[in-house]
Amino acid sequence: MCPARLIVLPPAYRGSLTGERIARVYASADVGAPAGLLAANLGVQLVALPSGPGDEVLREIADQHRGETVAVIAPTLDLPIALPAGRVVIEHDGDGWSILPSANEVTLATYEQAADRFRESIPRDPNGPLLELLDLAGDRLRPGATVLELGSGTGRDAVELEERGYRVRRTDAAWSFVEMMRADGFEAGRLNALVDDFGGPYDVVFADAVFLHFDPDQLAVVLRKAREAAGLLAFTTREGDGDEWSNRYLDLPRHFTMWQEEPLRQLLTDTGWTVLHLERHQSRVGGWFYVLATA
């Protein structure tokens, strides 16, 4: 039988796990109410763990839930492998623990393999409504301003940004897109928004259809880093509930997180941003938020 998947969550995890089939939630007593709320929302049993559960305890859980997925919430875990911060999926194959690729890593792998297909699947014109939001920044953003673009992708928006007089640093977490932009004659560099330093300072951080690939905890990290790098932020993300995996357009899996307006506004506030403008737009895959915020 397949090994159990243990989704290890930080105590302050904001996500819903709606895309997962969770058999049970395990949590140490020092986590408190969030674990109970998560279990209730998932409609599964909450089971108490000792503080700082170790290898033996977690192996027993893995043996009990072979072929299933469970959530584990504890401030610390005593395991022989080092776990990165945030949501982590681990499994025990009988010989030892291994860390499975995260949803973001799987999504990046898809873009590495399917950059050309992605280019063919999207409009060639830049995202006009998001670019027009920058006009609403007024004196905060003048020609000659510096722009850090996260997830430049094919580079379509960067070209228009430069035509408007801005100086753009093109970046992407996928080498396939970095190489695509370089082949088109532009300077571009690899930057993973979750783990890399943003540099700067810049006048604005610009992210078109990037934040939808981050879960709430990851997005909080990125928003704080953007707050340290620039005084303005312009981005789009999906409107909706929960999260989903999809193979549409690229025939490979990508993970998306959707947002409702109030939680999105609250996260921006919590990470030091004030919303200047928020608009809704529709596309062939559903609703989108277009946001301009100031630090």
From TrEMBL:
It comes from Kribbella orskensis. GO terms for biological process: methylation. This is Methyltransferase family protein. Keywords: Methyltransferase, Transferase. The lineage of its organism: Bacteria, Bacillati, Actinomycetota, Actinomycetes, Propionibacteriales. One of its GO terms (molecular function) is methyltransferase activity. CDD domains: AdoMet_MTases (cd02440). SUPFAM superfamilies: S-adenosyl-L-methionine-dependent methyltransferases (SSF53335). It holds the Pfam family Methyltransf_23.
